[in-house]
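tool=predict chain=A
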Amino acid sequence: MMPVTLDEILNEMPEELRLRVLQRSNEIREELNLREVRRLRKLTQGRLSKKLKIGQEGVSRIEKRSDLYISTLRSYVEGLGGKLKLVVELPNRPPVLLAGFGERSGSKNESSGRKNTSKTTRSSAKLKTKSSRTA
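tool=predict ok
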């Protein structure tokens, strides 16, 4: 019996099944753990730990954990030079980007340079009213 190549097997499949197999193989190819992502960036745990301002053992612990705070994961990804995005996949709907979880809190106000001055303005108005009464 002659060996059979993957291409030969795929070519004999119904087109719908072949497309599903190819799609899933692409998804699997893109699934990496944190350690593998760090290695793709050619960073050691020591170099990443300096960027994150934690010890090397802290990086090791993060990479071994299966349950992380989103903020910890975001910091880790940003330390690699990346950006965290969370996608929700629901049945019978296209994927949805989850807003607010991939960004640092307050980052929009910080980037625009705006400050919340409404409290300060009200306090200043009260002082002006009191000083005009005493005059």
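The first strand starts at residue 87 and ends at 88. Residues 19 and 50 are 44 Å apart (CA to CA).
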